Amino acid sequence: MKLSVKSDYAARAVLGLARAFVTGAARKVEELALEQGIPGNYLVQILLELKTKQLVRSVRGKDGGYLLARPPGQITLGDVMRAMHGEVLDPPALGDPQCPLELREAWARLKAAAEQAADSLDFQTVLEQSGDREKMYYI
Amino acid sequence: MKLSVKSDYAARAVLGLARAFVTGAARKVEELALEQGIPGNYLVQILLELKTKQLVRSVRGKDGGYLLARPPGQITLGDVMRAMHGEVLDPPALGDPQCPLELREAWARLKAAAEQAADSLDFQTVLEQSGDREKMYYI
DNA sequence: GTCGCTCTTCACGGAAAGCTTCACGGCCCG
DNA sequence: CGGGCCGTGAAGCTTTCCGTGAAGAGCGAC
Questions:
Q1: pTM, two decimal places
Q2: B5-134, what's its fold?
Q3: Which of A36, A77, B29, B42: disulfide with A121, CB 3.0–4.6 Å?
Q4: What sign has the CA pseudo-torsion A96, B70, B54, B74?
Q5: DSSP state of B98
Q6: Residues 6 or more apart from B6 whose CB is under 8 A from it?
Q7: Rounded to whole angstroms, how far apart are CA atoms B73 and A18?
Q8: Among B2, B106, B130, whose Cβ lies nearest the Cβ of A126?
């Protein structure tokens, strides 16, 4: 099942903001877009949705832009996916009474597994993985 | 992320065939379609794809129809999803060199988790769950 | 206060995929 | 040889995805 690029773009944007989180400065949309290879006007919509879901916040005017609403450790891949698509994984069978109950339970398990995995991947950890990689070069 | 109904339909069809597996008889497409609430002409295409992926086989002519190619215990939800969509879960980031490496690793983990979960759900187990439920009614 | 910078909002549109249906040809059995 | 069933391809319709554009509104600088 192919995922949409939207959640991918969103995750990249959050990662970009996570890197700047310690500085406390806001990052501009166009700057993020160029850095991450995302169409600027599309990224605008994505950030807007992330904002309504309280994952990021915005600052207007000069030196404005976007920044994370919480520390990177408190934002997970699951949060981002839910912000974009409502659910991490949503099997249509769960809402269809015609689907045999035992099969619906199987889909529910798959959904739970994906959700659990996505919720255990937070952006602080992702950042630290890149840090670990850099350290290795010093050896 | 919403899944398509296609893999849902496919799973229902496989479950219907799994129930009839012990009898060794082939089930007709239209029969399965009515029982599972699937558009008949669409189910034909699905079964055709399942057949090319060697999950089911067909018998032509009178008393023809479809049956499982292997025992229900050797067919998993992962098999069905891969037959329909190529992958259980396919994040576009994995094929995009512009995506930061550490983020791609996070997507890869999510994918692996979903795959592992889907592959551990086989149809024999699903059948037995419905059996367990029936037993409970006898208490 | 006005000007430039930035986010905000809304609307549009092409492209692709998903879902469904139709039509016709081929195989098997009585 | 004829009826029932699978095999195959193609054609619509609908919805979602992806991306673009332009006009409106808050903030700071001067």
A1: 0.91
A2: Arc Repressor Mutant, subunit A (1.10.10)
A3: A77
A4: positive
A5: T
A6: B46, B84, B85
A7: 45
A8: B106
What residue spans of chain B are helical by DSSP H? 5-19, 29-36, 40-52, 77-85, 101-119, 123-138
Q: What is the pLDDT of residue B62?
A: 83
Token pair of B89 as six digits: 């879960």
> A49-106: per-residue pLDDT in tens?
999 999 999 999 988 999 999 999 999 999 999 999 999 999 999 999 999 999 999 9
- Which helix (H) or strand (E) segment is A12 a member of? helix A5-19
Q: By CB neighbour count within 10 A (0-12 exposed, 13-18 middle, 19+ buried), where does B54 fall?
A: exposed
Q: What does each C-alpha distance from B39 to B8, B20, B29 come to in angstroms?
A: 13, 21, 10
Give me the residue spans of the domains in chain A.
5-138
| Distance separating alpha carbons of residues A39 and A36, to the nearest angstrom | 9
Nearest nucleotide (C1') to alpha carbon of B4? C18
Substitution target in A110, A115, A126, A130 with the highest count of B β-carbons within 10 Å is A110
Using the CA of B64, which nucleotide's C1' is the nearest one? Answer: D5
Architecture in CATH for domain A5-138: Orthogonal Bundle (1.10)
